[in-house]
Amino acid sequence: MEPELISIKQDRPGFDRFIGSWLCPFDKTIVIDVGPSRSVPKLINSLTARGIQRVDYVLLTHIHMDHAGGLAEFLDHFTMARTVCHSKAIPHLVDPSKLWLGSQKTLGDLAEVYGPIKPVKRERLVPHTEAQAEGIDFIETPGHAAHHLSFIVRGNLFAGEAGGIYVTVEGREYLRPATPPVFDLKQFLESIDRLLSAQDLRMCYAHFGRADRSHPMLKRERAQLLFWEKIIREETAGSDPLLVQRCMARILTEDPELRAFQAMAPADQARERLFMGNSIKGYLGFLGAEDE
After folding, report:
1. Within a 13 Å sphere around the CA of 289, how many CA atoms are in the beta-carbon half?
2. pTM flag (> 0.70)
3. d(Cα 284, Cα 44) in Å, to the nearest integer?
């Protein structure tokens, strides 16, 4: 059977077919990312409707709340599941107070839509450095987050947000970097190069879909990261309190990977502007730190 991306609808316009979990119903049943806490019942219902009564492994690409915020509730239902995540992520899952505060600061009222993050018992978590899951390769891919992992499972590359955001709009591709603060461009590029050193595989995105080949997509994302750096670096040469908006306007005009933005519904555009603004702020923080 092929991996299936299960869409997890959120209680906010513009978030249909944007957040999801990958289901791998192989010899061992694997779920990759579980989404926010408020929508975990929807994910459980979707799995139950597919006849899934047992989950052996939960693999977390990273612990941002749209990927792992509902882990405690998910494990309360699938009590047999073991969760594999980056070793750096474990303290924040056990005590998510700092993670919650950081999410509120970055996401604003969207954090409340996603729902609060409950603590997970330490014994339910396995650091990726100690995981012994047959048929799963773990690749450290920091950049979007310091604790980001990618996974290779049966010819599929689950890249989380290491390869950016990839959606289709009326049959047109839309590719966007995911570079929120704290962001390190050099680290992100190294992670992409690490994924490029693996085989050319099917590419499974957290947001939101699949591409037939990982190498061309990763090369496009790498070029886009550098293109954004060029534009944002040029714009920071001036002084403007509306710097983020100016960068966004220019990027939307000049980045060919974003052409499908104009075909999006207004609510989807609003979602993209929110995350695009955070991504630009990540670049600005990186460039400021680089100049110090």
Report:
1. 12
2. yes
3. 39
* Cβ–Cβ < 8 Å for 60, 148: no
Burial 188-220 (b: 16+ CB within 10 A, else e): bbebbebbeeeeebbbbbbbbbbbeebeebbeb
Q: CA-CA distance, 284 to 181, in Å (whole number)?
A: 9
Q: Which long-range contacts (CB under 8 A, 24 or more apart) does 93-100 make?
A: 93/63, 93/68, 93/119, 93/120, 93/125, 94/119, 94/120, 94/121, 94/122, 94/125, 95/119, 99/63, 99/65, 100/65
Nearest Cα to Cα of residue 254 among 228, 218, 236: 228
DSSP per residue, 248-287:
HHHHHHH-GGGGGGGGS-HHHHHHHHHHHHHHHHHHHHHH
- Would you state the CATH architecture of domain 4-291? 4-Layer Sandwich (3.60)
Q: What residue segments make up the domains of the chain, in order of their start?
A: 4-291
Cα–Cα distance for residue pair 218/67, rounded to 1 Å: 21
Nearest to 216 by CA among 230, 203, 232: 203
Dump pLDDT digits (tens) for 193-223. 999 999 999 999 999 999 999 999 999 999 9
